[in-house]
Design brief:
With 236 residues, the chain is mainly beta. 7% of the residues lie in helices and 38% in strands. It has 2 domains: 1-32, no CATH class; 34-234, no CATH class.
């Protein structure tokens, strides 16, 4: 939020200085002091490892959707704080089978398997390139039924655009969307107002998919190379 405020100040100043007819300009000094700071953590060093796979796992046609894997996810704050999570794609323009939107993510439709046990279409990040080929992609979520905030079960919320959040229920817990950068936070069950918490824990789930079999030269090793950064956004 501080970065957003500083960017707005720079834009305002530049815009005002470029208007030659103006005889004055306002300087706004803004910011915030939060009572607590929060730190996110993931088990396993934040690594989802699908191990060594045989080419036989690839479907003959279409995409191959792999099983979901999960890590322990936690946020620890020094005082009760309202925060959301957003994701930055570290492997842009590498989603196989789809074009990424303004958010840096793309929407993909599963063929026979379903993402996270139910969704036929979901937003995904890229799995990098191997030997010049887009390897695939992966969906990422914080599993709603697993999240505990200060000993209480909580509901998952999402805002389609974290820059101007309007919160609604998030039944899949997905952290990604295509048109804008999505925000994810939590609320008391049955409500859509973000809550403050000191400690939150749950499971982070990732489900990868692989490009169609014919895309790969299977005489060479194919490396999965996905990277995403989870960032905390402090809410008012």
């Amino acid at each position: 939020m501080m970065q957003k405020s500083l960017l707005a100040l720079a834009v305002i100043a530049t815009t005002a200085l470029n208007v030659q007819a103006a005889s004055n300009v306002d300087v706004k000094v803004i910011g915030r002091i939060d009572p607590g700071t929060c730190t996110p953590t993931l088990s396993g060093g934040g690594t989802i490892d699908y191990g060594t796979m045989s080419p036989s796992v690839l479907d003959a046609t279409g995409l191959t959707v792999l099983p979901e894997k999960q890590l322990d996810f936690a946020i620890a704050c020094t005082a009760p704080s309202k925060v959301a999570v957003k994701v930055v794609n570290g492997r842009p323009n590498t989603v196989a089978g789809a074009i990424e939107g303004a958010s840096g993510f793309a929407t993909i439709t599963a063929n026979s398997a379903r993402f996270f046990g139910g969704a036929t279409a979901t937003s995904v990040a890229g799995l990098g390139e191997s030997n010049g080929v887009k390897v695939g992609g992966y969906a990422i979520r914080i599993v709603p039924a697993t999240v505990i905030a200060d000993t209480n079960s909580v509901a998952s919320l999402f805002a389609p655009n974290i820059a101007s959040p309007v919160w609604a229920g998030n039944p899949t817990g997905s952290l990604l969307s295509t048109a804008a950068v999505r925000g994810t936070t939590w609320a008391a069950t049955g409500t859509t107002t973000p809550i403050a918490f000191t400690n939150l824990s749950g499971k982070l789930g990732v489900q990868a998919f692989l490009n169609e079999k014919s895309a790969f030269d299977l005489t060479n090793t194919v490396q999965l190379d996905g990277l995403s950064t989870l960032e905390l956004v402090y809410l008012p």
